[in-house]
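OP here, attaching both records as promised.
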Amino acid sequence: MGTRRGKGSLKRSLDPSSLGDKGSDRKLKGANALNNGRGQEITGVSLPPEGAIKGWEFGGGVRMACANVEGRLFALQGDCPRCAFDLWKGDLIYDDPGWDDLPRVACPTCSTTYGFRDGKHGPPLKRDGFAGFVGGLTKTATQGDAYKDAKAFRISRDDDGRVFCREL
């Protein structure tokens, strides 16, 4: 039917053995293996300002919550594993000595906290007033999902300002 057009250069460029990292004992797979192990390049997003969280949404309904803490970028899945509300609307905890494993985000609805470094769930943020009342109702309604962890992602930038993401 015709001649073959390409020479397979895309396949070779994604092959880890062609990257010169032959001594690596950890094999990255899928999108994590792209761009010399930095992961998938993210385009069309704006980075959160220092000390803030920003929500990102990509094709296929993929959402992420990205935080900027002291110039370092962290990201988690966009919805709370417990109540499915938007984590990027939550409270960023990064300078409170009463917490371990900082930075963390507290879900605005159920108050469950998640560590940005590994996605592990933690103790709930104590809230007063109406927010505390709603958080108590949400905890009761979602008791079965109380111990689910969030997916965590490593966000990095290169010298050209490109942003990369890979799942941890």
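Record two, same layout:
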Amino acid sequence: VPAAAPTLVCKTTVQVDDSTFTIELRPDWAPAGVERVLGMAKSGFFEQLPFFRMLPNFLVQFGISTSAEKQRHWQSQGNIRDDPRPAGVPFTDGILSFAGYGTDSRSTHLFITLGSQPGLGHRQWEVPVGRVVSGMPVVRAIYSGYGDAPDQGRMQPDRPDAAKYLADK
């Protein structure tokens, strides 16, 4: 662990314990990924950010801002390059990673693993950027009603019905 690994304390509306979980970011695992997460945090991107995909015993995903201005800003920054995969860092319980779909496809979508996920970490964009170091009961209690197929297009803040779609779910 780097001596001064940055941490993010995440306050949620989940009614478990104190509603917070803490993520330790690991620039030694993923320097480009951690740089992006820190930039997003400093800009306020994560404020009022919904969790939109939760699959028990697999992962919880987030990364679509309810603010059109914030979402557009980070989309305009483009995707980030893939970090080399760190040796010996498996996708165990509480690993934070960007979601992706191909080479250099990481943008704003992140996920936290729920339990050991040996099927993850084999594609070049699946690189851990950190891990939850406290508050996993809060992460596990995140609303799972969206399932695996939320309508991400309807969640985009430029859509006039985005807030209603999120509130109705």
